[in-house]
Design goal:
Elements (H helix, E strand, L loop, with lengths): L32 E4 L8 E8 L6 H21 L4 E8 L4 H14 L3 E4 L3 H14 L2 E4 L5 H4 L17 E3 L4 H14 L5 E7 L3 H16 L3 E8 L8 H9 L4 E4 L3 H13 L5 E4 L21 E4 L8 H10 L12 H20 L7 H12 L17 E2 L5 E2 L3 E6 L2 E4 L3
């Protein structure tokens, strides 16, 4: 499949390859975990804080980020050099208030850089704090535009000013919604589209809104739009019946994998057969305990990373991740890969800026904010599809996504 460079300000539509081009691009001190690089260095050690759910319903994401980041830190330590890291990872259980408490714990610890948070709603709350404190923040997966701020809504209004210290390694929610609508249109995957989204979740609503707008531009017919909330995400009979009665042939799911597993199960029980199309929140579906993974066959999503890729960097990362030191047999998802890339981006930016661990967090942040948007700064890693990723002063990343489909119980590139 053709890869897409992702940045809303540089949206390009093309007709090569498959015909797709688009924009894609989310506690207490006692709960802290982490590790340190083992190699001593002349330059000292930078203190990285990280926050995400390592318990609760979204734990797969937090644990993936924790493990992916730690692999990179350990590799850097093994290689030696003046830039070394230690990480303190705090559990927020995907709760904004607990995430802010975790952030304050990390400040007390002496955090100089923040990799996080993992999920969007806590990230919005925490980046408000890190922006005020001017601590450089690179989120692997906080995809809401409110995480970085400065982005206009559908009416052109900016409700949250730009948080100039915050940058994304992941695709933003609007980019995911726009690219998904484009992909479905270009590939003629469905003629009548149903959408099931979570209307009390920043992540889901952001993707939904731009998907609907782009679908209208492309002439896609949306025949059903139904919602659920945190308190009602167990019974999807109303949503599924509405999609069926409206004649939908494809259901778009801008939500996380746990409710997706229930939706697929309940659709099977009702004898409904739709095409399913998700976004990065679908990654993790195959790990849901008790879920019949055969129901996920044919599910499609757009993502920057696929663990079955054959390049040496991906194979090495997957092998390390599955070792007993990290994932203990689990297959890494894109959250793990984005976190791994975050650490190497920080290393590269630190080297470019010339900052040292004896500097305070605000001075480090000022230098890195300039370095990461410099014309000569780019990064090529696990989640950039072999191309150089860059950042704009909006905090958004421009990089290349890949399409995946679930086949025989594993994620495979759509052109495989």
């Amino acid at each position: 499949m053709q890869n897409l460079s992702v940045n809303r300000r540089t949206f390009v539509a093309g007709a090569a390859g498959l015909g797709l081009a688009g924009v894609l691009a989310g506690c207490s001190g006692e709960g802290e975990t982490g590790g340190t690089g083992s190699a001593a260095s002349a330059g000292g050690t930078f203190k990285i804080g990280s926050i995400g759910p390592i318990t609760g319903g979204a734990a797969i994401y937090g644990n993936a980020v924790k493990n992916g980041a730690q692999i990179a830190i350990d590799e850097i330590a093994e290689a030696g050099g003046d830039v070394q890291f230690e990480m303190n990872f705090q559990d927020d259980e995907n709760d904004a208030e607990k995430s802010v408490n975790a952030y304050n714990n990390l400040k007390d610890w002496g955090m100089q850089l923040l990799v996080g948070t993992v999920t969007s709603t806590p990230c919005v709350a925490v980046t408000a704090e890190s922006n005020e404190d001017n601590i450089f923040t690179l989120t692997p997966s906080g995809s809401s535009t409110e995480c970085i701020g400065g982005q206009p809504d559908a009416d052109g209004n900016i409700s949250t000013p730009r948080k100039e210290n915050v940058f994304q390694m992941c695709f933003s929610d609007p980019n995911q919604g726009m690219a998904s609508a484009q992909y479905i249109s270009e590939q003629k995957l469905g003629t009548k589209i149903a959408i099931i989204y979570k209307n009390d979740d920043t992540y889901s609503m952001g993707i939904h809104d731009t998907f609907v707008a782009e679908a209208a531009e492309r002439g896609l017919e949306i025949v059903s739009e139904t919602t659920f909330t945190e308190d009602s995400q167990t019974d999807f009979s109303v949503q599924l019946d509405d999609a069926k009665s409206a004649g939908a042939d494809l259901v778009f799911l801008p939500i996380y994998y746990t409710p997706i597993s229930l939706i697929l199960t309940q659709a099977k029980q009702r004898g409904y057969a739709f095409k399913w199309f998700g976004v990065d929140g679908m990654d993790g579906l195959l790990t849901v305990e008790g879920f019949d993974t055969s129901l996920a066959e044919g599910c499609m999503l757009l993502t920057p990373f696929v663990a079955t890729a054959e390049d040496e960097a991906t194979k090495s990362f997957v092998e390390k991740y599955q070792s007993d030191d990290y994932g203990k047999g689990e297959t890494p998802n894109q959250f793990a890969a984005d976190a791994y890339d975050c650490i190497y981006v920080l290393k590269q930016a630190i080297e470019a800026a010339g900052v040292t661990p004896d500097m305070d967090a605000s001075a480090i942040s000022d230098a890195l904010k300039e370095a990461i948007v410099a014309d000569d700064f780019s990064y090529t890693g696990l989640t950039t599809a072999g191309e150089a990723a860059t950042w704009s002063d909006t905090g958004e990343i421009s990089k290349m996504p890949m399409g995946m489909v679930i086949q025989d119980g594993v994620y495979m590139p759509l052109d495989a």
